[in-house]
Write a sequence for this structure.
């Protein structure tokens, strides 16, 4: 569940997507209209021949979410504030158990089950895109926290007197490292878009690869913020790997090279210094695969491969 699309799939115990459904999110409409689009996705999946074999339902939603209450309040869907999404979905899935997690946690579950963090006992997985989210695997199991938001690295403050963040704090990782903020910072520093007028972080990345000093500096600043957040997480919970996905990760070495270099500046204690940084591998299907993995773990249906 996101601000742009509502996607659903039937996922088997090997992480394969057997059927799909998708609708655009009517993000500016009222809550009932948004729920109507969710219901259409569920109806499309229920019409598939595999639906009778479905044993649990997982939801990965843009946040904030509150799994303890089964509610969601996506910042880019104003019609949903503390919306009882678990209750509404449960009414439509014939008594099957429903598990809710944040979208960053869902991505983490996916990358631990089928992706770059597979086989790792302790991991941080991150989505760096329009925002910055994340989740944790601790002792081989997805660690969601009481509300389903544990590991939300985007709102760790890494610049104590930095710019105000929409969350209400200052100097958050998201305020520095998200795609829109990479582009904003480059533009403010004098970067000029190309003839096509593209002002996105992807365009800044292309300029950086071509050697533009301002574009490179903006990505280096983002990498520094990510490195500080990863190091703080490693110091707290002793992760062994940080997996990074999302659109900004598509910049490749423009992001990963300075990130790995700056991580050495912050992760200096012996138990944190060995953290490996890897790109995510599951791409846009991670949310669907991860919602299934979270549901499987949450209900004990089957052991998620890769967990210890």
């Amino acid at each position: 569940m996101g601000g742009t699309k509502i996607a659903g799939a039937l996922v088997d115990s090997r992480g394969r997507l057997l059927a799909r459904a998708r609708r655009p999110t009517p993000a500016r409409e009222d809550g009932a209209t948004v729920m109507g689009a969710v219901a259409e996705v569920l109806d499309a999946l229920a019409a598939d021949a595999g639906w009778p074999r479905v044993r649990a339902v997982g939801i990965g939603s843009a946040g904030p979410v509150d799994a303890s209450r089964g509610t969601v309040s996506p910042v880019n869907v104003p019609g949903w504030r503390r919306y009882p999404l678990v209750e509404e979905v449960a009414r439509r899935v014939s008594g099957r158990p429903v598990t809710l997690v944040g979208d960053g946690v869902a991505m983490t579950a996916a990358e631990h089950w089928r992706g770059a963090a597979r086989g790792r006992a302790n991991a941080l997985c991150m989505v760096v895109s329009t925002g910055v989210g994340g989740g944790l695997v601790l002792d081989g199991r997805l660690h969601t926290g009481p509300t389903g938001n544990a590991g939300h690295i985007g709102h760790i403050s890494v610049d104590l007197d930095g710019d105000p963040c929409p969350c209400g704090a200052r100097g958050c990782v998201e305020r520095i490292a998200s795609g829109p903020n990479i582009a904003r910072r480059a533009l403010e520093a004098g970067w000029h878009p190309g003839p096509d007028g593209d002002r996105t972080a992807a365009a800044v990345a292309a300029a950086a690869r071509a050697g533009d000093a301002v574009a490179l500096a903006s990505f280096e600043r983002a990498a520094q913020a990510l490195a500080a957040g990863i190091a703080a997480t490693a110091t707290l919970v002793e992760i062994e790997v940080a997996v990074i996905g999302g659109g900004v990760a598509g910049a490749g070495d423009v992001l990963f090279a300075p990130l790995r270099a700056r991580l050495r500046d912050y992760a200096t204690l012996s138990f944190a210094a060995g953290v490996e940084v890897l790109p995510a591998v599951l791409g846009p299907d991670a949310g669907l695969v991860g919602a299934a993995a979270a549901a499987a773990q949450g209900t004990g249906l089957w052991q998620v491969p890769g967990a210890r």
Summary: The mean pLDDT is 93. Residues 35 and 88 are 8 Å apart (CA to CA). The radius of gyration is 19 Å.
